Amino acid sequence: MAEPLRIALAGLGTVGTGVIALLETNRSMIERRAGRAIKIVAVNARDRSRDRGVDLSPYAWVDDMQAMAERSDVDVVLELVGGSDGPALTLARAALDAGKGFVTANKAMIAHHGLALAEQAALRNAPLKFEAAVAGGIPVVKGLREGAAANRIERIYGILNGTCNYILSEMEQTSADFGDMLRAAQEKGFAEADPTFDVEGVDAAHKLAILAAIGFGARVDFDAVATTGIGEVQASDITQANVLGYVIRLVGIASLDESDDEARLLQRVRPCLVPRGHPLAAVTGPTNAVVAEGNFSGRLLFQGAGAGAGPTASAVVADLIDIARGDSGAPFSVPVEELEPFAPADPGNRVGRDYIRFTVTDRPGVLAEITAAMRDAEVSIESLIQRGRDDEGGEVLVAMVTHEGPERCVTKALELLEGSPSLTAPPLVMPILGA
Ligand SMILES: NC(=O)c1ccc[n+]([C@@H]2O[C@H](COP(=O)([O-])OP(=O)(O)OC[C@H]3O[C@@H](n4cnc5c(N)ncnc54)[C@H](OP(=O)(O)O)[C@@H]3O)[C@@H](O)[C@H]2O)c1
To answer: What residue owns the CA closest to ligand 1's atom 41?
Structure first.
């Protein structure tokens, strides 16, 4: 059998210790599948004395993580530390510069620096892999790069953040408001003490930028992802959506807009209304799911655990097995110099239906004012529900669903209503996911 693939592991937290446990538990099977052993030779974390529930005695402890990139007894550096910049990025650069393979679960770093790292990897002919960076244990990077490689991808979308999905699906079950469910999620360990990245959609945006790059052969462009979190979604929106036959999910969507001469890429993370019969509507709790629509494959659905020690380690070790087998290839599915620099698409070009929630004063003429703005902006209304809110002193909720039309018309209607004394809060627009 060939020489073992030698790994230096930086980061011994949830995922790092999960990788150690997986490699130990499935060692002989992995060796047979990879054609050689995968052997951790060196490890690093901040605190050497901490009991991590795994036996670290077989591995050399490295005090300075950066020294891993220089070790002659290491083939692949595995970074499970986290953070878009800082030591993780320094390590990535040093490892690739030294011609070593680099494997990571770090979505923030790949979303911000994936392109530069892929350029560096190509220069050194070194493998760069990040299956675990998108949707934890779900093999969606491989699914797109390999299984669906024969297809032109029309659209990619999915539920990319387990914390948000847990909160939204619990709000659905309990009719509780966002703040209460966030606290419950924190108590149950489904949300971080600082949940900002999750609930504001940033974590999902990191993953979407990576998926879009792979699916569309695009340069990773995190800054182009328009991101709205779930903090504005109220229990009453969920009730209205339910009455209309929808559930609310935080959805990341990437699609090409070819309405002009030059193709542009639309990347958005937003709370959306999902028809109850759509596969994403059945995705509840902390589960993740990604849909890719290929021109020959049709709709592909990837679903599973988006986080957790076991699932994430499964994705990390799959990358190590690939490298052990000598399977490498372009990290973003086409050679880095061929990745397209798509400009961001104008969201106004999107043609679809929208849900709009208005919070208005309870007085005559308000509905007429809203419908007049819709008429003037050429928005056609499919349904309109008005509900009084006993607890909010004369406020009324108006939930509207539009017929299919260009999004720019809805934006224009809301501009016409801007500053109106009838509106007591900014309206919330949520796109309705098409079939
Ligand atoms: N957790 C998941 O389910 C999951 C899923 C998908 C992707 N990821 C990604 O996987 C990566 C690791 O996540 P995790 O949940 O395993 O994190 P974690 O539990 O917080 O572990 C991070 C590890 O990195 C070490 N570390 C942090 N800063 C360091 C520094 N400056 N120098 C040296 N070591 C440092 C920590 O050392 P100490 O232990 O000594 O403090 C710890 O062992 C992140 O990029 C994350 O986004 C995680």
So the answer is: 46
State both tokens at 385. Answer: 């529900």
Q: Is the CB of 288 under 6 A from ligand 1?
A: no
The model scores a pTM over 0.85: yes
Tell me the C-alpha distance between 210 and 130, whole Å.
Answer: 10
Handedness of CA 63, 64, 68, 72 (dihedral sign): negative
Ligand 1 touching residue 202 (CB < 6 A) = no
Is the model's pLDDT at 393 over the cut of 80? Answer: no
How confident is the model over 411-428, as pLDDT tens digits? 999 999 999 999 999 999
**Ligand 1 center to 45 CA (angstroms):** 9
CB of 252 shorter than 6 A to ligand 1: no
Average of pLDDT values for 54-78?
Answer: 97
**CA distances (Å), origin 210, targets 79, 154, 191:** 17, 16, 23
User: Is ligand 1 within 6 A of the CB of residue 87?
Assistant: yes
The pLDDT of 27-34, averaged and rounded, is 97
Specify the residue with its C-alpha closest to ligand 1, atom 31. Answer: 87
From residue 347, give the alpha-carbon distance in Å to each of 19, 225, 259, 268: 41, 11, 12, 9
Residue nearest to atom 30 of ligand 1 (CA): 46
Pocket test for ligand 1, best of 80, 107, 288 (most atoms within 8 A of CB): 80
> Could you tell me if 430 and 232 are in contact, meaning their C-beta atoms sit under 8 angstroms apart?
no
Residue 358 reports pLDDT greater than 80: yes
Q: Which atom in ligand 1 lies closest to the alpha carbon of residue 52?
A: 39
CA distance readout (Å), 424 to 147, 238, 369: 50, 20, 14
What percent of the chain has pLDDT above 70? 98
User: What is the residue-averaged pLDDT of the chain?
Assistant: 95
Does 207 participate in catalysis according to the annotation? Answer: yes
Question: How many angstroms separate the CA atoms of 103 and 84, rounded?
Answer: 15
